[in-house]
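Box 3.1 A note on notation
Throughout this textbook, protein chains are presented in two layers. The first layer is the amino acid sequence; the second is a token string describing backbone geometry. Keep the layers aligned when reading.
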Amino acid sequence: MIVNLLLIFTYKNKNLLAIDSFLVTALLFILAVLHGSERYGKKNILIFFLITWAVSFSFENLSIVTGFPFGFYNYSPSLGLLTVPIIIIFAYFAMGYLAWMLAHVLTGQYTRKLEGKQIFLVPFIAAFLMVMWDLTVDPISSTLQGLWVWTYPGAYFGVPTSNFFGWFLVVYIFFQIFALYLSKYDSIKEEIASKLFNKLYWSETAAVYGITALGTILSVFYQYNDITISMALITVFTMIFVAILALINIWNNPDFKNS
């Protein structure tokens, strides 16, 4: 929340804005690693990161060169000298983890190993939750802030519609790979299983997902225009709704402990 508030004072300076983006991403990354290690162990959460890195980095570079699957674009030098800044890969992992865990909540997959149709259903739902985030941040980050620039601006406040279908494809691929891996190699030990019956453990991911959404809503305070107003509205009725729905599901579950 504090870092989100910093956006109000940094948005006019691209370098300060980039620093703020690094801080937000670093914090989310650390939280994802710590939280994910409790459930999956250090080895499996590292594998999740490597899968996310390999898939997202490959498609990001492919799109910059060929326009597939997102469209043609380039990143601002303020994010780094590489064609695809490192911060982007960490953002994929951090937000991907939140979407992944919320997909477990929405499908009731709290304490069970992924099996049967859940191997494909959980990645499918997680991909939608991930695209919700990009749907709300891309017009602000690109059209208004210039953190990345579209070569051929599109109909969605300057963002090509192909970007969102590309996002769904890419994030679904790394979610699906991880799900297939877990269906064979995930093991839920007794001490882990007891933690998975804790309401607070699952509420943490829903809360962080919702707090992340507040960054978009707060954008109306530093630049009040059609884009920020529209993104704030979309965020309320997508990401905020999902966070609330997840918290309701968690706290209404009679099998869970309160702490």
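The chain is about 75% helix and 0% strand. The beta strands are 73-75, 148-150.
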